[in-house]
Amino acid sequence: MMTLEFFSGGKPLAVSTKTKHVVRDQLARQIIGGELKADMVLPNELDLARDYGVSRTTIRDVLQSLEEKGLLERKTYKGTRIRSIHSWNLLDAEVLNWSCGIMTQRRFFSSLMELRLIIEPQAAALAAIRNNDLELQTIRDAFDWMNIDGQRIDPEGDVAFHHSIIKASGNMFVAQFGGAIRAALHHTIYLSGKEAIDQGQSIENHRQLLHAIENHDARSSYAIMSRILKITVADLGLSESEIILADCLP
Prior knowledge:
Blueprint: H1 5-8, H2 20-32, H3 45-52, H4 56-68, E1 72-75, E2 79-82, H5 93-102, H6 106-130, H7 133-146, H8 155-168, H9 172-176, H10 178-195, H11 199-214, H12 218-235
Antiparallel strand pairs: 1-2
Helix pairs in contact: 2-4, 2-5, 3-4, 5-10, 6-8, 6-10, 6-11, 6-12, 7-8, 7-11, 8-10, 10-12, 11-12
């Protein structure tokens, strides 16, 4: 059983100094960052409430929220236990955001890129076939947002461009991945953007993708999106041996 000093350094916190969301984010980041290890049992609700300086009701809400996201397991008479990463709901947008902000393991980011490679090329092909005028204009607007001057990329515009293509795919199940994919896009695009050598060429690749979607060219849309993502893999410093690419399979 962990002591309260683990959380507060032995100094009690004033009541109501933290909101539920602040406490939840702090506890989640301690779990995901490995500060609190899998299978550890947390102090009881009263002790946690006193330590965090909030009400017992707030702590109960925090624990319930993290249990729903797979980070905790609560059992009567046995307390609250921290679960391993294999039980976390990694497709939950908040869990993914917490993870991206903390984890640096190459396996984590290679898994994110594999997810993007599985979904986004097919989404681009579907968007080319199914897009309507409103969706197409949204993609165009996002491209204009990301393209600062032909040589520099606005990361938020880049995220919006990819996300608008996913929405234009018209697949209700892909749309359910929207929050998770957006979080993955946000972090991988920001990281790759910092390392990208030729943003001008990246803008041109995105322009070609936009034109392929406008021309309802599904094959080209699939191929260009795949090319963009493979460049992102390289910009992240990941090798192809770390990412299973469909066109590399025998």
